[in-house]
């Protein structure tokens, strides 16, 4: 197996070696752009370091979930280790892996740092090192607990992440204090990945906008501010297509006191068109509607069309049940906000979704949906003018994005985020 590494990747691979000027540092963090090659070189370096410096010790591989470790880190690293003569035995039911080479054997446990309760999962274990992939997505309590478990002499910490806002705790406490913490900080750009073509780099540059462009393409820790979809203008609005769609789906953001928004989506060719909407503001109307009344409004929006599925906010339990009793095929929406926003921006720019002229409330919200500047260390949108925005995001994250990934898989062009 022949691999090409950039100068920055080579620095990561050997930062701990005796010939390196950074060999005495306690930690390394690789942050920066997506697809910049940091995950492969950091993961490979971690295994080479741990297998050359320790015997019979325990280590931790951490992601937001154990499945994200298996998805993002192991598929790129394990084939390289195998080509180098390492034997890697994964014990999936125990979330651990045993690696052997030249008479040396070490154990690597997989942990997920999803929420504050995750810190308890890693308590009690003694580690000789920890790798935290996408550390900015993990709660501080989990990261600090993982580092505290590294009590073996010579232990080191290994971090990777894409940038968030400058108020993020990891940026303030680790990156800004890299020298104080005896940590090597390396910022990656897409140009640091020699396997990434110029065409792919240009595509990523077109995909993101605003703060996400500065973070995921330029690799900067920058605040999200202003309008969320700051690129949205009249060019993204078109008349509804004539004729019958290939498929029909309805998406819903349900509110009792807050507005309820529903969108009727039709698949015409390669794009989904939001051809019609229903928007009801109970405060403005001074009257709340029942679940059954909203179910009737949904039926009116469907207009006798064969609706494949109704995508609904997963927290709207009573409305979900009311729709099921009416015979609708109901699907709970993917409700990850930030990833959903990025997917929606990508879908709009690629022409995978189109907003039609009659959807006046959605068009209005696109111009008013803003970031919350008082959110502190996490990105957050303001909870206003967000009902059609949430419902459109549900549709993209639950229907459009999975279909796009499946199509890319069968075309043989899937690219793993890095």
List the helices and strands and how they pair.
Elements: H1 7-14, E1 27-32, H2 38-53, E2 58-63, H3 66-72, H4 74-83, E3 87-91, E4 96-101, E5 104-112, E6 129-133, H5 140-148, E7 156-161, H6 169-175, E8 183-188, H7 198-207, H8 210-216, E9 237-238, E10 248-253, E11 260-268, E12 271-280, H9 282-285, H10 291-302, E13 309-312, H11 317-325, E14 330-332, H12 337-350, E15 353-356, H13 360-366, H14 387-411
Parallel strand pairs: 1-7, 1-8, 2-5, 2-6, 6-7, 9-15, 10-13, 12-15, 13-14
Antiparallel strand pairs: 3-4, 4-5, 10-11, 11-12
Q: Write down the overall mean pLDDT.
A: 91
Largest sheet data: 8 strands, mixed
Query: What order do the helices and strands follow?
Result: HEHEHHEEEEHEHEHHEEEEHHEHEHEHH
Provide the low-confidence segments as ranges.
Answer: 409-418
Q: Structural class of the secondary elements?
A: alpha/beta
Lateral arrangement of strands in the main beta sheet: 3-4-5-2-6-7-1-8
Explained architecture:
The structure is a single chain. This protein is of the alpha/beta class and 418 residues long. It has helices at 7-14, 38-53, 66-72, 74-83, 140-148, 169-175, 198-207, 210-216, 282-285, 291-302, 317-325, 337-350, 360-366, 387-411; strands at residues 27-32, 58-63, 87-91, 96-101, 104-112, 129-133, 156-161, 183-188, 237-238, 248-253, 260-268, 271-280, 309-312, 330-332, 353-356. Strand 3 (87-91) and strand 4 form a beta hairpin. Helix 1 (7-14) packs parallel to helix 2 (38-53), helix 2 crosses helix 4 (74-83) and helix 10 crosses helix 11. Mean pLDDT is 91; it is low at 409-418.
């Amino acid at each position: 197996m022949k691999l090409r590494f950039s100068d920055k990747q080579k620095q990561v691979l050997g930062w701990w070696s005796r010939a390196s000027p950074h060999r005495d540092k306690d930690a390394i963090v690789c942050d920066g752009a997506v697809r910049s090659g940091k995950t492969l070189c950091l993961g490979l370096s971690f295994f080479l370091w741990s297998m050359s410096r320790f015997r019979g010790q325990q280590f931790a591989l951490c992601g937001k979930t154990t499945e994200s470790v298996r998805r993002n880190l192991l598929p790129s690293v394990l084939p390289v280790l195998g080509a180098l003569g390492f034997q890697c035995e994964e014990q999936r039911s125990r979330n651990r892996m045993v690696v052997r080479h030249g008479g040396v054997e070490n154990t690597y446990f997989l942990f997920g740092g999803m929420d504050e309760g995750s810190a308890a999962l890693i308590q009690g274990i003694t580690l000789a090192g920890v790798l935290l992939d996408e550390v900015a997505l993990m709660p501080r309590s989990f990261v600090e607990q993982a580092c505290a478990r590294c009590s073996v002499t010579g232990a080191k910490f290994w971090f990777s992440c894409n940038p968030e806002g400058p108020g993020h705790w990891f940026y303030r406490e680790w990156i800004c204090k890299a020298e104080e913490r005896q940590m090597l900080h390396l910022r990656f750009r897409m140009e640091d990945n020699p396997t990434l073509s110029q065409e792919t780099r240009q595509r990523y540059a077109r995909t993101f906008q605003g703060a996400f462009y500065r973070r995921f393409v330029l690799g900067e820790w920058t605040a999200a501010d202003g309008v969320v979809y700051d690129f949205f203008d009249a060019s993204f609005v078109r008349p509804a297509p004539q004729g019958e769609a290939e498929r029909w789906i309805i998406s819903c953001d349900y509110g009792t006191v807050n507005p309820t928004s529903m969108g009727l989506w039709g698949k015409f060719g390669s794009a989904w068109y939001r051809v019609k909407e229903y928007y009801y503001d109970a405060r403005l109307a001074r009257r709340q509607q029942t679940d059954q009344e909203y179910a009737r409004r949904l039926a009116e929006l469907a207009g006798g069309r064969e609706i494949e599925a109704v995508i609904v906010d997963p927290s709207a339990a009573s409305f979900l049940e009311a729709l099921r009793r009416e015979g609708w095929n109901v699907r709970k929406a993917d409700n990850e906000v930030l990833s959903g926003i990025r997917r929606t921006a990508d879908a709009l720019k690629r022409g995978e979704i189109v907003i039609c002229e009659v959807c006046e409330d959605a068009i209005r919200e696109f111009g008013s949906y803003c970031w919350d500047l008082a959110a502190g260390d996490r990105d957050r949108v303001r909870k206003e003018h967000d009902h059609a925005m949430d419902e459109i995001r549900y549709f993209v994250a639950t229907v459009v994005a999975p279909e796009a990934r499946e199509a890319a898989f069968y075309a043989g062009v899937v690219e793993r985020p890095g």
